[in-house]
Amino acid sequence: MSLRLTGITLTYPDGDARLTALDRVSLEVPGGSLTAVVGPSGSGKSSLLAVAAGLVAPDAGTVTVDGADTTGMTRGELARLRRRKIGIVFQQPSLLPSLTAAEQLQAMAWIDGRSPAGARGRAMELLDAVGLAAQAGRRPHQLSGGQRQRVGLARALMNDPAVLLVDEPTSALDRERGAAVVDLIGRLTRRRGTATVLVTHDRAHLAAADRVAEVRDGRLRLLTAARRP
């Protein structure tokens, strides 16, 4: 399991010119490791995640997810890749209000056409992994902000992805709950072998990462080397 971005350039229209969001960015994230990405607002962090997820096609460069080159994939192929190989944890978990915590996870398997019977067991395993087995039957309004974020994390892991992309998971949490969520992401990354990219504005959480990279003016540079091979 791994994620590799090679020579990624991404531009957007800006009047009569084009604005460069990512400028020849390369990044390799091995399975079982967590790379934290920091940088000022508007530096290109969200664009990096969007390209890695196959939501936006770069002007140049390649994205390889678990050995699969996404260049030239159709929309349908990219959607299937996201369902089966990429887990995404959004800044706001956006849970469906009518579904219980367990059903939020089961829905991911149903969308992919997998067995409902097997999905229930998998959902309970993951809720237990994030410390929420006792809240499996609760709906979002019955959960705290930190608990909803953990449900979102479990949901992203439901289809056993090779790559986990996490966008500002602590922005709506206090320092203590935010630290607990980031620590959990690190532990699950190593336990499940995912190649994880965590975008964060809070440098207090960087100790949980194996590597830290900074995006500034569309360019990426490593600030610390990986602690693990």
TrEMBL record:
CDD domains: ABC_MJ0796_LolCDE_FtsE. InterPro entries: AAA+_ATPase, ABC_transporter-like_ATP-bd, ABC_transporter-like_CS, ABC_transpr_LolD-like, MacB-like_ATP-bd, P-loop_NTPase. One of its GO terms (molecular function) is ATP binding. Residues 3-229 form the ABC transporter domain. It comes from the Bacteria. Keywords: ATP-binding, Nucleotide-binding, Transport. PANTHER family: ABC TRANSPORTER RELATED (PTHR24220:SF685), IMPORT ATP-BINDING PROTEIN (PTHR24220). This is ABC transporter ATP-binding protein. It comes from Streptomyces glaucosporus.
